[in-house]
Design goal:
mainly alpha
Length: about 270
């Protein structure tokens, strides 16, 4: 199959799933397996991480005023407003995953980028979501806005984000589940997940590209760019849709979806 088609398909998959608690990387690995490139294109693991930067740029566009306010530059509705959410929240929310990522990056690349490990992560992440919803149902004192988020809650969410280093677990799924468990409202947990994804994915992309420089060729660059652009455009639509959806639904539906996808690929693994 043409790598141009692969780039477009995976860009669409990435843009649609990056902000849903179903794991964009996991879905890209499963899609790449079906297209026959997961084990044949040597840059596939790097591609699956790098094009996530396209989706993250969509976050920058949608949340640009909030992101500027986080670093102290307030415009629009944040001008003259005292915000509790600040750069320290973002830093403490990122530190656990940064440390774990630097330590285990090579091991993750070697052992966890396969559709078999993604199946396990989909099931494990779904179970965590069901647990989180059960805990949240009993908690009546939720932080319903980003400005009510405490440093302690941000740090705990950061620890849950470490689980997202396992492809298939889902960054938004793990951080939203963690947020519900530590007393953060569903929409607030989603928004904080998007915000801390910006520095995380910029760093992860830089690290992947740096490690792949010796094996990358100029012919890879246009394919990476196309995948990233497609992911950006699709993600712009997906963010708005998901933020409206998450106010009306729980994580249970996404957990059941993960179980169904895992079951389908278990059958694929058995009968391929």
């Amino acid at each position: 199959m043409s790598l141009w088609i692969v780039a477009i398909v995976l860009g669409i998959v990435e843009g649609l799933t990056e902000f849903l608690p179903v794991s964009s990387t996991g879905h890209m690995i499963l899609a790449a397996e079906l297209m026959g490139v997961q084990n044949t294109w040597k840059q596939i693991n790097t591609f699956e991480v790098v094009i996530q930067l396209g989706s993250i740029m969509a976050v920058v566009v949608v949340f640009w005023r909030r992101l500027w306010a986080v670093v102290g530059v307030k415009t629009g509705e944040y001008k003259g407003r005292k915000n509790q959410l600040n750069l320290i929240h973002v830093i403490v929310g990122c530190i656990p995953a940064i440390i774990a990522g630097l330590i285990f990056d090579d091991m993750i690349d070697k052992h966890l980028f396969s559709y078999q490990t993604v199946i396990i992560a989909l099931i494990a992440g779904g179970i965590l979501m069901l647990i989180a919803e059960k805990v949240a149902h009993k908690n009546r004192n939720l932080s319903e806005t980003l400005d009510q988020l405490s440093y302690k809650q941000a740090l705990y969410i950061g620890f849950f984000q470490v689980l997202a280093l396992w492809p298939g677990f889902s960054r938004s799924g793990s951080t939203m589940s963690g947020g519900l468990i530590v007393g953060v409202g569903r929409k607030t947990a989603a928004e904080f997940s998007f915000i801390i994804a910006v520095p995380m994915m910029i760093g992860a992309t830089g690290l992947k590209v740096y490690k792949a420089l010796d094996t990358m060729t100029m012919s890879d660059v246009p394919i990476f760019i196309v995948g990233s652009i497609v992911a950006f455009v699709v993600a712009m639509l997906a963010i708005v849709f998901f933020l409206k959806l998450i106010e009306r639904v729980t994580l249970r539906g996404f957990a059941y979806y993960r179980f169904i996808i895992a079951f389908i690929f278990i059958l694929y693994m058995i009968f391929r």
